[in-house]
Design a protein that fits this description.
seven-stranded mixed β-sheet, 21 helices, elongated, phosphoprotein, histidine kinase
Length: 664
């Protein structure tokens, strides 16, 4: 019974264990199935992630803006990305399997071992990313500088089987760096070799930099100064006190033109002008000051000399001032003297001229004296003209000249000048004309007509005196002034006379001055042009001359003239333009010239005895005896008749011209 119970218990236990392990196996099998399914799902996910990553890497590889090359340790190319294909101008299918250095980089064979040696060294270095920089070639001539980042790929056994190289073209950057370095070298050269000194001070006034120029001035080496000396070590005591006072008064301010005395290493000194600019950090704290220094020793020496000269000049100026004052007083005395003496001379001279006119008209005056009386009259008038010139000059210098304004027209002015000079020019067979006469019509002004006329008379008188053939022209040019009521009128007198040498033009407007040609050619005081110049100045204008020897002269002056708006009928009547060329009156003088030719022919026909006697009787003005002589000459000639008529009518000018033409 016990055995059966034990057997039953054992059988129950076995059954229990069998059931338990059966269920455990089923659970484990189920769990294994679940785990298998889960692992399978994870594997698929991992594979999907790997594919996505590979796709991302491939996209990066294909679209990267960098050169990517995969190559084996024997320098054979496995693959290149599209950017590398474009950069090296070589397709992927051609590049793969080629030699990296010779075929892709196109390194010359003689240099290829050097590059391969550099690349081989990366296999012996522990770093993951190894950087290198060397040149490659695109084609045969285009050399490019590329920086490479190399990564070694190893298999499961730790052996390298491939290298991934990523390159970036830095050619432009290298060129920029080289240019920057050259610029830096130029700037450094400019800094060190500038004609002025440069130095910088820190907050403790210690010199932290200095250029070669200032070092040469001071006689120190850079090592002796930079970081070791302060600015006070380079200054005299008085200059350092001055420097400190300025810095304390204007802390960290820009300094300009501070004059200091520097001390060299050998204890000699020199003067400088210092400019300083402070710099600050972003918080406004002082960092450093930068200074330029100019050696002004020579200038200081020059200033000392200049001060000495200035004192001497000041003393000389005082002496000159006294001399000028004395000269002014003497000039005033001279002007007063000329003014008084000319007034005193004019009174008796007017009497001489007046009495000579009376004597000339006296019927009881002997014939042989009438020529002398006429000569006395003409010389008196000439002397009066010179006295009037001196009086005018005295008035101008004494400041007593006044302006007498009157209304006139340019036509009226021209007609006056033409009536004064046309016959005199016609006598010399010189053409006197107005250029562009239409310009002066209907132009009326208010000004000092007498002074304008006097200027033009002086200029035309000179032109007549120094012109023997050709022409004398006068021209008026009118320009509007800044003030609408004023015109700028230009007066131009041009002649074809003997001209003036260039080297003598500067003196022709000075009083009592004549050119060599003028002084030897005709008589004169040399006052006409000086008076004209001063009259032009008095009227607010300016005068100038342009001339060449034997090429004629051109005198120009311009005056501001006030325009007249309301014009009287009388003034309009006086402003009708008449003749504009002296040729219009030549016929009056040509007749007399023809008469002279007939008389000269008559004289030349007779024997020299009669000719000399006739001219001698004309010279002593014994016209009675001359008429008897002419009557007794048995010759019927037109020249004889003309001469008899001139003698009977006392044509003194004709007879005097006849004497002059025969050099008597």
């Amino acid at each position: 019974m016990i055995d059966e119970i034990i057997a039953i218990l054992i059988a129950s236990a076995l059954l229990f264990y069998a059931y338990y392990y059966h269920n455990a196996y089923r659970r484990e099998k189920k769990l294994r199935l679940i785990l298998f399914r889960k692992n399978l799902s994870n594997a698929e996910e991992i594979e999907r992630i790997i594919r996505e990553k590979e796709k991302q890497y491939q996209d990066i590889y294909d679209t990267a803006n960098s050169i990517i090359i995969r190559w084996s340790p024997d320098f054979r190319i496995h693959s290149v990305n599209p950017y590398a294909e474009e950069f090296f101008q070589m397709g992927k299918d051609i590049a793969e399997g080629k030699d990296l250095v010779l075929d892709l980089f196109r390194i010359p064979f003689e240099k290829s071992n050097e590059i391969k040696s550099q690349l081989w060294n990366i296999f012996h270095r522990p770093e993951q990313n190894i950087r290198q920089e060397f040149d490659v070639y695109i084609g045969n001539d285009d050399k490019r500088t590329v920086t490479w980042s190399n990564r070694i790929l190893k298999n499961e056994f730790g052996y390298p089987y491939e290298v991934l190289s990523i390159g970036i073209d830095i050619t432009n950057r290298k060129i920029a760096e080289e240019n920057l370095m050259k610029s830096y070298e130029r700037i450094l050269d400019l800094y060190n070799n500038a004609p002025c000194g440069y130095h910088s001070l820190d907050k403790d006034n210690v010199l932290v930099s200095i250029n070669d120029t200032e070092l040469d001035w001071l006689g120190y080496t850079r090592e002796e100064i930079v970081g070791n000396l302060k600015i006070n070590d380079l200054l005299t005591e008085s200059s350092y006190d001055k420097f400190q006072q300025i810095v304390n008064s204007f802390p960290h301010e820009t300094l300009t033109g501070v004059e200091l005395e520097f001390v060299r290493k050998d204890k000699s000194t020199f003067f400088v002008s210092l400019n300083s600019i402070p710099t600050f950090d972003k918080n406004g704290n002082f960092v450093i000051s930068k200074s330029t220094v100019f050696d002004i020793t020579d200038r200081k020496i020059a200033e000392d000399k200049l001060n000495d000269y200035s004192q001497k000049i000041e003393l000389q100026n005082k002496r000159l001032q006294k001399a000028v004052e004395a000269a002014i007083k003497a000039n005033q005395s001279k002007s007063v003297f000329f003014s008084k003496i000319t007034h005193e001379l004019r009174t008796p001279l007017h009497a001489v001229i007046g009495f000579s006119q009376i004597l000339e008209k006296d019927p009881n005056l002997p014939d042989h004296l009438k020529g002398y009386v006429h000569s006395l009259y003409e010389n008196g008038v000439h002397l009066l003209g010179m006295i009037n010139d001196i009086l005018d000059l005295s008035k101008i210098e004494a400041g007593k000249m006044t302006e007498m304004r009157e209304k006139f027209s340019l036509v009226q002015l021209w007609d006056t000048l033409f009536s004064m000079f046309s016959y005199r020019f016609a006598e010399k067979q010189i053409q006197f004309e107005l250029v562009h006469p239409e310009v002066i019509e209907n132009h009326f002004y208010e000004a000092d007509l007498q002074k304008i006329k006097q200027i033009l008379v002086n200029l035309l008188g000179n032109a007549l005196k120094f012109t023997n053939q050709g022409f004398v022209q006068i021209e008026f040019q009118i320009q509007p002034g800044l003030d609408p009521s004023v015109d700028r009128v230009h007066f131009i007198v041009k002649d074809s006379g003997i001209g003036i040498p260039k080297d003598q033009l500067h003196s022709i407007f000075e009083a009592f001055q004549q050119t060599e040609q003028g002084s030897s050619y005709k008589e004169g005081t040399g006052l006409g042009l000086s008076i004209s110049h001063q009259l032009v100045d008095f009227l607010g204008g300016m005068i100038q001359v342009d001339s060449d020897l034997n090429q004629g002269s051109i005198f120009r002056f311009e005056l501001p003239l006030t325009k007249v708006n309301e014009i009287s009928t009388d003034l309009k009547e006086k402003s009708k333009l008449g003749p504009t060329n002296s040729k219009d009156v030549w016929h009056l003088t040509k007749a007399e010239d023809t008469e002279k030719e007939f008389v000269q022919t008559f004289l030349n026909m007779e024997s020299s005895k009669f000719k000399i006697e006739i001219l001698q009787l004309i010279k002593i003005q014994n016209f009675g005896q001359l008429l008897n002589l002419l009557t007794n000459i048995p010759l019927d000639h037109k020249g004889k008749s003309i001469l008899v008529e001139k003698v009977k009518n006392k044509r003194y000018k004709f007879l005097i011209d006849l004497l002059q033409s025969n050099n008597v």
